[in-house]
Amino acid sequence: MLKIEDNFTIKLGDRIVIGCSTGPDSMALLDMLMKVREKYQLSLIVAHVNHNVRKESQEEEQFLKKFCEENELLFESMTIEEYGDDNFHNEARNIRYNFFEMLVEKYDANYLMTAHHGDDLMETVLMRIVRGSNLSGYSGFKEVVDMGNYKIVRPLIHYTKEQLLNYDIENNIKYYVDSSNNKDKYTRNRYRKYVLPFLKEEEENVHLKFLKFSENLIEANKFIEKERDKAIERVFLDNKIVLNKFLLEESYIQKEILYYLLSEFYQDDLILVNDKHINLILSLINNKKANSYVNLPNEVIAYKSYNMLELKRDTLEITSYEIEFDNYASLPNGHSIEKVEECSENSNNICRLNSEDVVLPLIVRTRKFGDKIKVKGLNGTKKVKEIFIDKKIALEKREIWPIVTDSKGNVVWIPGLKKSKFDKKKNESYDIILKYI
Length: 437
Prior knowledge:
The protein is α+β, with helices and mostly antiparallel strands. The chain folds into 3 domains: about 5-210, HUPs (Rossmann fold, 3-Layer(aba) Sandwich); about 240-315, 2-Layer Sandwich (Uridine Diphospho-n-acetylenolpyruvylglucosamine Reductase, domain 3), CATH 3.30.465.60; about 320-435, Phenylalanyl-tRNA Synthetase, Chain B, domain 3 (3-Layer(bba) Sandwich), CATH 3.50.40. Helix content is about 40%, strand content about 20%. The protein contains 14 helices and 22 strands. The protein has a 6-stranded mixed β-sheet, sandwiched between helices. A hairpin with a 4-residue loop joins strand 5 and strand 6 (about 150-155). About 25% of the residues are buried.
């Protein structure tokens, strides 16, 4: 008979939160722990999440609640009222683990146990291989994950689904079957129904071979992560990648650095990205454009600006504005322009105009396609876009950078960057002084 002690060392007085769905796997895990509860004086907290997507969900929750009452087990449950993510399984997983972590803290538990088994590991590894990942991803999931103040443990990883079903039959354990587990529309179900049976015909204990494969990858990845972390210290600055330093690293380490950047940014949503996105970012880094970006899942962009690369939420939508200037204008970029009485400065943050040379009122707006400025001291005009490039202004900043024109559309000043022929020297005649703050 399967025993929890066969593969996991339980200590006297352990406090364990058990993720329990009422399925055959989690009910088997719960039974195994109950069998050694008295021996080890365990505190067991049964944690159930009602996903609220099947009509049987309420019945299953009530069954488990009653089961816990009859067996003197602490029972905690929550119901997911609504979903906002396109990826149902990913969002549900995040909600579950947040709930479990809250209970770990509430009961000062030292373990969170889930009923993931050998078949689950095989499915995960195969899906990651087909989808594309790195060594950490290809390893599937760990048997034990150290979370600092507690550990996530998957003690059934050595067993198959069939072994657990037989355990339930032998011990007369009631469980519920989620009907959605048979639907081919879910990727994992297709692996479960069509790929795993073939592998098990080839090798009865193939799940243990996959476990060994996973463990080897985890060990190899530990070494690689040490090298990656050294590289991160060399190439990161303020959560951005310094590209000329990044490009000095080995190509494999470059990819590991990008996976790290994605993992830090996406956190629990990392399942949304794969090696295709890594290659997309690498192409961005290696192209010759100084300012460019690529779209990633969930409205995230990888943004390259000259020698820096960072991830951010999509802020590249142009914020268009046009303000009729009087004495003061507050700007979307956090700066302002104000009319002052006097100023001794002569930088690009100051503009002096003669109202007889321009058509009032002045306009403060975002740039328009084809904008040109008659640059002070230069015969002829220059495109505003070229000035941004010359000054190495990041693409996202260009979209909301203020352009000051008169009412006829003449660009009279690009605050902080360039003055036009309309700007007056301090010893010339002017009656308007503008300051960019």
